[in-house]
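Let's practice the habit of predicting before peeking. Look at the sequence and jot down your guess about where helices and strands might fall. Then scroll down.
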Amino acid sequence: MGITDQIMGVGVLLILGYTGGQLAKKIKLPAVAGYCLMGILLSPSIFNIIPYDLSLELNALKILGLSIIAMIIGGELRYKTIKKIGKSIVVITFMQIFTTVLAVFLGMFFLLGKDLSISLIMASMAVATAPAATVAVMREYKAKGNFSTTLLGVIALDDALCIILVGFALAIAKGLTQIGATFEMADMAHPAWELVGSLGVGFATGLILCFILKYIKDRSETIVVLLGFVLINSGIAVYFDLSSLLVNMVSGAAVANFFVKSPFIINVFDDIDLPIFVIFFTLAGASLQLDLLAANWLPALVYIVARAVGKISGCYYGAIISGADNVTKKYLGFAMLPKAGVSIGLILFVQSRFPGTELAAVVTAIELAAVTFYEIIGPMATRYALVGAGETSTVGIDQTGDKKIEV
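Done guessing? Here is the structure:
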């Protein structure tokens, strides 16, 4: 019999999740991987300590965690820093999108023989990268530098473009699966609104936040105001069917670029982010469904491998084309592997457009199976990339990008 009380459930997630993180550190894994693995042990798939119903009831905590992480990413996207590496971010983003879509489509359509609609949707959804695990690992290892900034920039642009890409795929799929249906620009209304609306709301709330922050001097009070705006942004996003991820990301970027008094003010979240990360990732692990991974292991395996090939090769060749350094060429693709929060939102979007269909069922099963895998492997891949890039607090690297040294 699992826990049914929300208060007790949050307490168990905090304590056991933290324990999982500490155990992970003992064997040189990122703490976030420990949180997720502990969550899986607590899930209905193993010990059922956090039942599925309780996981749904605590969904607000998932939104809060992802929204704070989004604002933290925005806070790192400062124009003066991005200006130096802006070309690399744009070129790498588009290149890895192209290679990921191509690799997954070929795997789904030609290797597995899935129909064209499913193949197109899966290929577009493969583009999404989960920022949560990346940010958590970066903060755990205190990663700073051009590689980290490039990574966050690529993730931000990647997820924004993914929304539009999935919208196009769904519009084409509608024409292919419904008799007499054709592609119409009206089918793009929702993804266009989600992107443009999210950018507009985030920019507006960011400017309001800048104005309010001018009159606040205490660090604790700053946290209160920022947290309040994170919740307001997320509430507006839910009400108007926008992306809470993009709204908070843009809001954080606006503060970082227009709040001249202290462009690094978003960093005050350092004081409170650990318990939020512990709950967020442990709860994410508890929401994963191992039975789906087992039941769909073959299509999931093809999808997982094809996506990894697309991300890693795309970042590599994008870095070559844009003239990025050796470190970016070698490691950026590995840090782009995490996949979770954004994908769940896209799954719900697919289900709303094709309710009760085989297409929605197949997409959901494969995507959730892949999310289960990447939720565990993603943080480890990100750690590997950050250590290799020499931007953690414990490991350095020479300018050739080949030799690691202790610092």
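How did you do? The first strand starts at residue 395 and ends at 397.
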